[in-house]
Amino acid sequence: MQKRLRATVYGLLTPIWPATVAGIVLGAIVGTLIALSVSANAATATTQVRIDPPIDPNQIITSSPMPADTLQGYLSGEVAYLSSTGFQDAVADELGTDESPTLTATQQGQASIIAISATEPDAESAQRAVDAALKVYGGHVYDLNKVRVQSALDAVNGAVVRLRQQALTDADRDGVPFDEAVFNDRTRDLDGKRVSLESQIDRAPAIQTIESTVSESSTGSSTQLLGGIGGGLLGGLLALGAALAWRARSGVVSSPAQLQREVDPLPVIAPEVAIGKSRRSLELARALYSQLPQPRTGVILVVGASDGSGSTEVARLLHGAASEHGAAKSVGVAELAGKDSAAVRTALNAAISVEGQGSVIVDGGSLTGSSQVIDVAERADQILVVARIGHDTVPEVALATNLGDAPVAVACTRGGIFG
């Protein structure tokens, strides 16, 4: 059971592509789930407002018209203010929240229209944020205008007071009575400007709502797609690294090429034998038999590096191919159970005598499966070691190749992804 469990783990981790594919799939699932947990729908509320710059107190005092470039300069300044952190913090205070809303302000072309937008998890919150932004902005414009007008009004009132004081001083110096009517005529223009300023001080901000819209968008699908792709890439890389590390650490046979490097100069014959799928493959049997060292007669011991190597299937294939070239007999090591070395040798010699110039294919099972394997190896004319990819380890194969003095070759089997 432990050997089969190890074979399953090796089968999953040793072949690079199954481990990598599994990592990609698992990573994509995890990435999608994470993205799903953090993604959410979003709603954006937008209100377009027409903004007219307030009358400059200097224009009232000097009776001068508004400069042509005043509007664009004013609008640019308002957009900058609406986009500032301070404005967003003020809106958060108005909403009674600690987190500032996501606000944007853009001027619509060269017109005096500014679009104020807020993006929130739901439409109600987004519209509430825009309404709060308009309220804060209206209060800001009102307060700023009131301060500027009050400053100008104070200047006009101060001028009137100074003129009255000067008129009283002049009348006293000349010894004439102060003429209120004459003084009022002299200050009529200033009185008119004062009235104009007083009418402006409590004027509502010139902010007119044109249109309000709310649009909802789902960011979940795109976020999940990106999460799945990112998770798949990361999972594949991690699985690939883990498989490579496992292969290096465990010493398990991962491919015929790797095994050839480990057992060189012994030949590793091809192709691989798929366990359970090659029972009737005569072409495969001929290919394996043709690569055995010369001569291909006498006692040929087929022994697996472990119990699950697949030596029985390889022995059956070799027996079928050998039968095409002369008399061939198949012997299982179980038939030699209980015999000592001399008896094993005698039995094999007898089989050779019966077959003449033919061959005796001995299915030796595994290296540790029977004590008679060593006795067969001493009589064998050649030994074929069977190593299962993703199951057997290089040390096990190396031990089997040193079983006897006869010529040795190695054949590889594969049991699929799950061992």
Q: Your description of this structure?
A:
With 419 residues, the chain is α/β, with parallel strands linked by helices. The chain has 3 domains: 2-39 and 219-250; 41-218, Bacterial polysaccharide co-polymerase-like (2-Layer Sandwich), CATH 3.30.1890.10; 256-414, 3-Layer(aba) Sandwich (Rossmann fold). 55% of the residues lie in helices and 19% in strands. A 6-stranded parallel beta sheet has the order 5-10-9-6-8-7, sandwiched between helices. A 4-stranded antiparallel beta sheet has the order 2-3-1-4. The mean pLDDT is 80.
Largest sheet report: 6 strands, parallel
Which CATH-level-2 architecture of the largest domain? 2-Layer Sandwich
- Helix coverage percent of residues? 40-55%
* C-alpha-based Rg, rounded: 49 Å
Extended strand count: 10
Report the structural category: alpha/beta
- The gross shape turns out to be rod-shaped
CATH class of the largest domain: Alpha Beta
Count the DSSP helices.
Answer: 15
Distance between the termini: 12 Å
